[in-house]
Amino acid sequence: MNKMLWVFLYMPILLLPILVYACGQSGDKGNAEDNNRSFIQLGEFTLQKVSPGRTEVRDGAGRRLVLVPKNAPAPGNVDSNRLIRTPVKRVAAYGAFNVSVLKALGVLETTLVGSTYPTEKWHIPEVRNGMKSGKIAFLGSDNSIDFERLDQVQPDLVLTWDRSIIPMLNDLDIPCVITSSTTAMCLNTRMRFVKFLAPFFHREDQARSFFNRVNTALTEIREQTHNAGPPLKVMWGDIYEKRVLVEPGNAWVAELINTLQSDYLFDDVFGTSCIEINVERFLYSGKEADILFTYRTPEQGATSKKALARLNPILSGIRPLNDGRVYAPLPHYAQSYHRLDEILKEIAAILYPELYKDDALRYFMELPETNPETRRRR
Length: 378
Fold this sequence. Notes:
17 strands; Rossmann fold; five-stranded mixed beta sheet
């Protein structure tokens, strides 16, 4: 067989055990192994302790970055754009997830100097207060960064999902870390991602504490929902004007739903978070679904089942809008990675409310049939 053809056909098969291993080491065992190994793989991200004074990471773009202490001599074989001095003191961060990871590590208030959300969109008090005081700068939206303003705030590091800005940041001599990957984070990676960023700030102990807290919550949830009853059929996504987006079966929410003895209906879809599928596939699953998690917040129109159907009438035919349940994320949900343990428990409570009767929803809202004002007018 032609050598190149062999590589093309069989290399994905050879790599599959690596990916399965990277997404299969959750729990106490995975944490213990992290503590005793110099090399850690978290999905597509890797972390390797080369020596006491050098750590190498691979970010979501597959780039090798080298971390060395601020007072150490610069390695001679590392490009300046991929050399990061630690602990990092000044960070500019895209979006909400990266900022929430900083909060999980306990460095948000002391390190964040730039954000891509305006003040009014933030629900994290430290960020709102920092932006109001001028300590944290608004850098423009994710898709239209003011690079002159970014340069002025002089970050040591930029945390971003946007690979397209790497050349511009290289010109500005500002290192960056790509914190998203081409495939959605599995549950293991989501829980442990804090460990990937911890060495940048010398916060490994805080990362371990965070993981232990989340892992304890997951263990308790698994025990609580074991043999809870007939499995529910769940879908996570929405239909927009020109696109249909869902969470794939490899995403952490899908894995969590399956772990909790329910059936995730897009389990056969693989790829990035918010992956696009055709409308027929979405509607097919919608016929049998018990629960729909929409991406839309109440501020984006998800205030009731009727309101959601008005936004896109084709949704009105799926079962959750008629005989099932629909849940919308509240605005602060996307900014709450540092409360991942609470989010896992809340999703379990949504699936099995009879097991969590005293738990009020804090991150999601169950949509009523109609808006309250509509009911009052009647």
